[in-house]
Amino acid sequence: MNGRAGELESAQARVTELEQQAREVATVAATELATVRAELTSATTHAERAKARVEEIEHRAGELRAELDRVHADIERLQTELAAVRHALRPADRGCRYSFSRTVTVQQFLVS
Fold first, then answer.
1. Measured distance CA(23)–CA(7) in Å, rounded
2. What pLDDT is attached to residue 83?
3. Band of pLDDT at residue 98, cut at 50, 70 and 90
4. Enclosing domain of residue 13
5. pTM of the full predicted structure?
6. Distance between CA atoms of residues 72 and 67, nearest Å
7. What is the pLDDT of residues 41-91, one digit of tens each?
């Protein structure tokens, strides 16, 4: 019976040793799992913030594109108006120079 008692005692010691190793492995695994979860939470938060920032930038880019389109339209309209004014002034410009200079001369005469 002593042989069996020794085997039983040896087996119980081995079970105790394996249980201790299992607890250590579980502790390490739990620590690593907590670390990974924390990193995942941090990465998820960072990704959500980045996504929000991208959406904000895309929205602002859309606003700027619309503003640029309005500016281009304004420039085109002003160039058309300027061309029309220049065209309207060209024939009158020749006649106005004499008329303007006569007006200046008459005004200078009246002032003196």
1. 24
2. 93
3. very low
4. 1-112
5. 0.52
6. 9
7. 999 999 999 999 999 999 999 999 999 999 999 999 999 999 999 988 886
Q: Is the pLDDT of residue 33 over 50?
A: yes
CA 6 – CA 9 distance, rounded (Å): 5
Mapped to the 3 state alphabet, what secondary structure does 24-87 carry? HHHHHHHHHHHHHHHHHHHHHHHHHHHHHHHHHHHHHHHHHHHHHHHHHHHHHHHHHHHHHHHH
Among residues 44, 45, 47, which one has the least CA distance to residue 55?
47
Domain count of the fold of the chain? 1
| Mean per-residue pLDDT of the chain | 86
Q: Residue 82 is encoded by which pair of tokens?
A: 């300027």
Q: How far apart are CA 45 and CA 38, in angstroms?
A: 11
Query: What are the residues whose beta carbons fall under 8 Å from the beta carbon of 96, sequence distance 6 or more?
Result: 89
Tokens of 58: 């895309």
Q: Per the structure block, which two tokens stand in for 70?
A: 């309005």
